[in-house]
Design goal:
By secondary structure, this protein is mainly alpha-helical. It is built from ten helices and no strands. The relative contact order is 0.12. This is Rhomboid family protein.
Length: about 210
């Protein structure tokens, strides 16, 4: 029973959710989750300020949310997707995928907005990191499909591709959603996960 319980426990996912909930409570206490001054104070990503030296915003922005709906949808996605990636990759590699996707997407988004000349941009949310998890799942399902090209594996691969397409359609329909940061997160998560999977295969071959 202990082994079964351990398999069903996903500490990193639960800790990440707790951090998001804690900071959301802090947002409300300091003025409200939809108050731009509060979000700025707590570390929302504002490209001009990040470039000026406040690089910590690339991290902190991943744990802030604009309103209850934003928080609930992201935490629900993190709960389901995070546990799958954590179970597949383990603690360390899961953290690598999550934080590289989130911070990397925020960094590329900053460069992108400055290059396009967008002004008054404020970005918050775990969405970019979560899109990195979707990219990770795509890499995992793709590897499984390459190994065993069964109907079940093909169906799983098609399902995650459909999820990605629906997500990007939604991104383009809702003005407040950042399509570019989601795309950056997805790509980073996929690339890093593919690299980690290749390392995993190589290590198995060397140890066998």
């Amino acid at each position: 029973m202990n082994k079964t319980h351990q398999k069903r426990f996903y500490p990193i996912t639960y800790i990440l959710i707790c951090i998001n909930l804690t900071l959301f409570a802090l947002e409300i206490k300091l003025g409200g989750s939809e108050n731009l001054n509060t979000l700025d104070y707590l570390g929302a990503l504002i490209p001009e300020k990040a470039i000026a030296g406040e690089w910590w915003r690339l991290l902190s922005a991943n744990f802030l949310h604009f309103g209850w709906l934003h928080l609930i949808t992201n935490m629900a996605a993190l709960y389901f997707l995070g546990r799958l990636v954590e179970a597949s990759f383990g603690l360390i590699r899961y953290l690598i995928v999550y934080f590289f996707s989130g911070i990397g997407a925020m960094f590329l988004f900053t460069l992108f907005t400055l290059k396009t000349g967008e002004e008054n941009v404020v970005l918050v949310g775990a969405s970019a990191a979560i899109m990195g998890l979707i990219g990770s799942i795509l890499a995992i399902f793709l590897q499984i499909w390459f190994k065993k090209r069964t109907k079940v594996n093909a169906r799983r691969l098609r399902l995650i591709i459909v999820v990605i397409i629906i997500q990007f359609l939604f991104d383009n329909l809702v003005p407040e959603v950042s399509f570019s940061s989601h795309l950056f997160g997805l790509i980073i998560g996929f690339v890093i996960s593919s690299f980690l999977l290749l390392l995993q295969i190589r290590n198995k071959e060397l140890s066998s």
